């Protein structure tokens, strides 16, 4: 597999293997806590992925004992507002880029997933969790409201009432509980996390990328549209897909009773 733009020293690594873009948090000593440097690196990595036309799936993961524990509180002591502005600008810029991709996004999580880490996890379309994962909203414990898209994604994932319970009461959820309420899609033994996520992300990378992109847009916009507007968006999306090579391939494969071979075109 061809690798692109890999830097083992970067605190946010990004590279491409074939059609799969990797986004890996490499700040393991701090359990991938977000400081200003980390946030800027995250934004740059997301921009590089968004600019790469060969990307057909994205895999987000974290090195060390935790996926991501949220903001680096030590960096905010004594200068909270100024630091928070820069931190949030970088993280939100990157999350906007991920949301706009055609390629589906998969996160593999383990250990602690807290605060901004929960928002980053929920930015993925599918989440595979190790059985040692522990998830926490965490913000009220430091007297803060949320960032990293948590207020948008959490109610969509679990419903408003459950989202408010998680946010206001602050329970720590284990992987089984997260699966039960729809925060994650699959739970696997920690030893199987990489292999299981790889199978899933490679399946998506071999799929109809432009159709996936339209599906992502439709699903993410559905809660903001009344039915008529959503029907119009579905019409536009289907007609755009009908002009693609992947649609023609899918139809021919159906009639010839074979598996389609999609190219993302």
- At CATH's second level, what is the architecture of the largest domain? Alpha-Beta Complex
Number of helices: 10
Helicity range: 40-55%
Q: What name goes with the CATH superfamily of the largest domain?
A: 2-enoyl-CoA Hydratase, Chain A, domain 1
For the largest beta-sheet, the strand count, sense and barrel status come to: 7 strands, mixed
Query: Rg from C-alpha positions?
Result: 19 Å
- CATH topology-level fold name of the largest domain: 2-enoyl-CoA Hydratase, Chain A, domain 1
The CATH class assignment of the largest domain is Alpha Beta
Low-confidence stretches: none
Q: What is the first-to-last residue Cα distance?
A: 21 Å
Chain-averaged pLDDT: 94
What secondary-structure arrangement, pairings included, does this model have?
Blueprint: E1 3-4, E2 12-17, E3 20-25, H1 36-50, E4 57-62, H2 80-99, E5 105-109, E6 112-114, H3 116-122, E7 126-130, E8 134-136, H4 150-158, H5 160-169, E9 173-174, H6 175-181, E10 186-188, H7 193-205, H8 209-221, H9 227-242, H10 245-255
Architecture overview:
The chain is of the alpha/beta class and 265 residues long. It folds into two domains: 3-205, Alpha-Beta Complex (2-enoyl-CoA Hydratase, Chain A, domain 1); 209-255, Orthogonal Bundle (Lyase 2-enoyl-coa Hydratase, Chain  A, domain 2), CATH 1.10.12. The chain is built from ten helices and ten strands. It has helices at 36-50, 80-99, 116-122, 150-158, 160-169, 175-181, 193-205, 209-221, 227-242, 245-255, and strands at 3-4, 12-17, 20-25, 57-62, 105-109, 112-114, 126-130, 134-136, 173-174, 186-188. A seven-stranded mixed β-sheet has the order 1-2-3-4-5-7-10, with helices on both faces. Strands 6-8-9 form a three-stranded mixed β-sheet. A hairpin with a 2-residue loop joins strand 2 (12-17) and strand 3 (20-25). Helix 3 (116-122) crosses helix 4, helix 4 (150-158) packs across helix 5 (160-169) and helix 8 packs antiparallel against helix 9 (227-242). The longest helix is centred in the middle third of the chain and has 20 residues, at 80-99. The chain is globular, with a radius of gyration of 19 Å. The two termini are 21 Å apart. The relative contact order is 0.11. The mean pLDDT is 94.
């Amino acid at each position: 597999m061809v690798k692109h733009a890999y830097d083992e020293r970067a605190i946010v690594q990004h590279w491409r293997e074939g059609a799969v873009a990797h986004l890996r948090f490499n700040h393991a000593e701090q359990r991938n806590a977000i400081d200003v440097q980390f946030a800027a690196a995250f934004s740059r990595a997301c921009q590089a992925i968004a600019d790469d036309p060969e990307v057909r799936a994205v895999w987000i993961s974290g090195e060390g004992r935790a996926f991501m524990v949220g903001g680096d509180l030590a960096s905010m002591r004594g200068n909270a507002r100024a630091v928070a502005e820069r931190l949030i600008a970088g993280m939100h810029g990157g999350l906007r880029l991920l949301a706009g991709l055609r390629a589906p996004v998969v996160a593999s999580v383990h250990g602690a997933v807290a605060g901004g880490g929960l928002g980053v996890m929920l930015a993925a379309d599918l989440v595979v969790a190790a059985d040692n994962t522990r998830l926490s909203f965490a913000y009220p414990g430091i007297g803060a409201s949320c960032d990293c898209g948590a207020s948008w994604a959490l109610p969509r994932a679990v419903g408003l009432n459950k989202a408010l319970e998680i946010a206001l009461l602050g329970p720590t959820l284990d992987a089984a509980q997260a699966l039960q309420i729809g925060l994650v899609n699959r739970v696997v033994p920690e030893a199987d996390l990489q292999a299981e996520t790889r199978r899933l992300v490679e399946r998506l990378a071999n799929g109809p990328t432009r159709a996936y992109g339209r599906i992502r847009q439709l699903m993410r916009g559905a809660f903001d549209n009344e039915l008529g507007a959503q029907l119009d968006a579905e019409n536009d999306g289907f007609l755009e897909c009908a002009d693609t090579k992947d649609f023609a391939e899918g139809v021919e494969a159906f009639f010839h009773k074979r598996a389609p071979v999609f190219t993302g075109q």
